[in-house]
Amino acid sequence: DETVRHIVSACPKLAGTKYTKRHNDVARYVHWNILKERGIEVTAQWWKHVPIASVIDGDTTITWDLKIITDKSLEHNRPDIVLHNKKEGWAQILDIAVPYDTNVVSKTAEKITKYRDLEISLKQNWEVRKIQTIPIIVGTFGTVCKNFTYYLKQVSPHIRPDVVQKTAVLGTAHVLRHVLTDNMDR
C-alpha cells in the first residue's frame, strides 16, 4: 500500500502535518515576495518569514489564510492569499497546492473553478472591476503546467519559478525522509 505516490501525496496520516508544511513553505515564499516587492519590511531570508493574517499597504490589503465573509454562505471562501486594491478596483485570489505530479493540470483547473462563486460575490461586495483566481500549483517532484510562470508573473515578477519548484521538492524529500526513517526504526 505504501507506494511513493501514497507517501508523498495521499497518506491521511501525513496530510495535516508534513503536507501542510510543504504547502505553507511554498505559500510563504510567494507571500514574502509580494510584501518585499511592495517595500514592506520582511526577513532577509524568505524561509524565516512568518506571515501575518492581514497587511495593509496603501490601498492594497494582503491577507494570509483568512476566511472571507460574504453576504452568501460559500463553500470555498478561505484562499491562501488575497490581494485587494480598493482604489484601483482589483483583487487576486491566490491558491496554492502541491499535488502528485500527474495531477498538476487537473488541480490547476480545479483551483480556477473552485473560487468562481467567491469571485462573483467579491465583485459585488468589494466593488472590484477585475478579479482573478491565480492557481500556484507545483507537483510533489516539481512538475508544473505550461502556464505556471505566467501565473507567477501575474502576482509578482520577482517570484522565481525554480525556487517554488525547489521548495516543493525539498518538502517532498522531507516527507520521504520522515517516512523512511520511521520505517527503518521499526
What does this protein structure show overall?
With 186 residues, the chain is an alpha+beta fold. Helices cover 47% and strands 16% of the residues. The chain has 6 helices and 5 strands; from the N terminus they run H-H-E-E-E-E-H-H-E-H-H. The chain has helices spanning 4-10, 12-37, 104-114, 116-125, 148-155, 161-185, and strands spanning 54-57, 60-64, 81-85, 90-97, 130-137. A 5-stranded mixed sheet has the order 1-2-3-4-5, sandwiched between helices. Strand 1 (54-57) and strand 2 (60-64) form a beta hairpin. Helix 1 packs across helix 2 (12-37) and helix 2 (12-37) packs antiparallel against helix 6 (161-185). The two termini are 17 Å apart.
What does this entry show, briefly?
With 186 residues, the protein is an alpha+beta fold.
Write the element-wise H/E pattern from the N-terminal end onward: HHEEEEHHEHH
Helix proportion range: 40-55%
Distance between the termini: 17 Å
Our estimate of the beta-strand percent is 15-25%
Derived from helix and strand composition plus strand pairing, the structural class reads: alpha+beta
Spatial extent as radius of gyration: 17 Å
Give the low-confidence spans: none
Strand order of the largest sheet: 1-2-3-4-5
What summary fits the major beta sheet?
A: 5 strands, mixed
Shape: globular
User: Care to count the β-strands?
Assistant: 5
Mean pLDDT: 95
By DSSP (H or I, 4+ residues per run), the number of helices equals 6
